């Protein structure tokens, strides 16, 4: 009999539903067992976040130095600019939309301060991280830039191996345990009577982000059409097979062959496309940035926390860099963002778990937005590069 494989999204949906269901009748002493697991897992995740940042970001920046000089610089700047545009577009749009549909909810006060309102653990085990989040980010940038500019390979080889260890940590430990962690979070909220508003928020945010994804893609291809003097809607239509493929694979890397084929169909020269598309699959994260910014803002609005352009400007700019290696790792984007959510926006373990659940619920759409936007970047780079790089 063939074994049925459940996707990460399916597991998260089951975990949320089971947490709410079991929270209606599970005795408090048993529920506190799961709350204790959440505490242990949350502390381990806090310990792991600096390692994840260092292990993913440093080698990713180091490997960018192996590119084709001028073409690499052009593509990287456009990709980063697109990611920043997505972040600020999302901030401005969410600032207009969310206050009207996401009023401050007392249930989120409980989530923001769980120790005052929700079940407590049987015991705690402190797991202090080796360094704080900002130290890990700065160290990643310094080492990554250094690796890309030296002739030696010893440090580069070390970080490639270290990245493999971090990826194993994510794939074998963190991702498999995430559904149980999310189950415990929703179980705790259900037992404490703080879940209805959160589910309503989830549904509203998912609808808003889907609409913003469509608007972002139209804007990206409008710009590409203006630069290349081509019909933007025809360009976007040609990229729809890549969008549909990404919905199924949930992976930018796995969608590269289709994205490449459709970019060529849009008239991008082959020598440009074969460089730009695989590179953008790693460094262009407009859709993922949109999801993280919108989800973070939604949670902060409902918790009654202040939301300002000053706070989110730094967050968005750092996010575009920190997620540079995320598409190669399952759940990599939100894993790379956890440190920034904690250090720059003050998210605790419970709010981080809600972010993970909300992010994964829309993972396919974010990936599809990322890879479809890669086609717009390829068109722009092809026009800018001209005959010099033929």
Question: Care to give the gist of this entry?
Answer:
The chain is 78% helix and 0% strand. The chain has 390 residues and is an all-alpha fold.
Write the layout of secondary structure elements.
Blueprint: H1 8-22, H2 28-64, H3 70-101, H4 106-112, H5 114-117, H6 133-148, H7 154-191, H8 196-228, H9 232-238, H10 240-249, H11 256-265, H12 270-283, H13 286-302, H14 309-322, H15 332-345, H16 349-361, H17 363-385
Helix pairs in contact: 1-7, 2-6, 2-7, 2-15, 3-8, 3-12, 3-13, 3-14, 3-17, 7-16, 8-9, 8-13, 8-17, 10-11, 10-17, 11-12, 11-17, 12-17, 13-15, 13-16, 13-17, 14-15, 15-16
What this model shows, in words?
The chain has 390 residues and is mainly alpha-helical. It has one domain (8-389): Proton glutamate symport protein (Orthogonal Bundle). The chain is built from 17 helices and no strands. The protein has helices at residues 8-22, 28-64, 70-101, 106-112, 114-117, 133-148, 154-191, 196-228, 232-238, 240-249, 256-265, 270-283, 286-302, 309-322, 332-345, 349-361, 363-385. The longest helix is centred in the middle third of the chain and has 38 residues, at 154-191.
Supply database-style keywords:
single chain, 390 residues, globular, mainly alpha, 17 helices, Proton glutamate symport protein
Number of strands: 0
Distance between the amino and carboxyl termini = 54 Å
- Output the number of helix runs: 17
Q: How would a textbook summarize the main sheet?
A: none
**Secondary-structure-derived class:** mainly alpha
Domain unit count:
1
Unreliable sequence segments:
none
Please give the radius of gyration in angstroms: 21 Å
Mean pLDDT: 81
Quaternary organisation = single chain
H/E element order: HHHHHHHHHHHHHHHHH
Shape: globular
What do we call the CATH topology? Proton glutamate symport protein
Q: What fraction strand? A: under 5%
């Amino acid at each position: 009999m063939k074994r049925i494989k459940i996707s990460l999204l399916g597991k998260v949906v089951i975990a949320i539903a089971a947490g709410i269901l079991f929270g209606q009748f599970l005795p408090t002493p048993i529920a506190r067992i799961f709350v204790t697991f959440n505490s242990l897992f949350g502390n381990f995740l806090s310990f792991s976040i600096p390692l994840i940042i260092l292990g993913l970001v440093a080698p990713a920046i180091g490997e960018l130095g192996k590119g084709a000089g001028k073409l690499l610089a052009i593509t990287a700047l456009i990709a980063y600019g697109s990611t920043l545009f997505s972040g600020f577009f999302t901030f401005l749009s969410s600032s207009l939309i969310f206050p009207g549909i996401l009023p401050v909810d007392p249930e989120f006060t409980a989530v923001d301060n769980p120790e005052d309102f929700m079940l407590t653990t049987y015991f705690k085990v402190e797991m202090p991280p080796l360094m704080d989040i900002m130290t890990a980010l700065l160290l990643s940038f310094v080492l990554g830039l250094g690796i890309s500019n030296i002739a030696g390979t010893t440090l580069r080889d070390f970080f490639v191996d270290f990245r493999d260890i971090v990826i194993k940590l994510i794939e074998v430990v963190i991702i498999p345990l995430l559904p149980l962690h999310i189950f415990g979070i929703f179980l705790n909220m259900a037992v404490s009577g703080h879940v209805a508003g959160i589910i309503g928020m989830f549904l509203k945010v998912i609808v808003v982000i889907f609409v913003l994804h469509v608007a972002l893609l139209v804007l990206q291809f409008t710009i590409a059409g203006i630069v290349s003097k081509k019909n933007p809607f025809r360009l976007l239509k040609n990229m729809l097979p890549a969008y549909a493929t990404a919905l199924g694979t949930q992976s930018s890397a796995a969608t590269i062959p289709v994205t490449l084929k459709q970019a060529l169909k849009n008239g991008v020269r082959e020598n440009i496309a074969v460089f730009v598309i695989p590179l953008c699959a790693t460094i262009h994260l407009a859709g993922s940035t949109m999801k993280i910014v919108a989800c973070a803002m939604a949670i902060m609005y409902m918790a009654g926390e202040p939301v300002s352009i000053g706070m989110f400007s730094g967050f968005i700019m750092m996010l575009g860099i920190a997620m540079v290696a995320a598409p190669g790792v399952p759940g990599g984007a939100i894993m790379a963002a956890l440190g920034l959510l904690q250090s720059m926006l003050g998210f605790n373990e419970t709010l981080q778990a809600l972010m993970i659940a909300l992010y994964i619920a829309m993972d396919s759409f974010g990936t599809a937005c990322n890879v479809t936007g890669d086609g717009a970047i390829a068109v722009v780079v092809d026009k800018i590069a001209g005959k010099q790089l033929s």
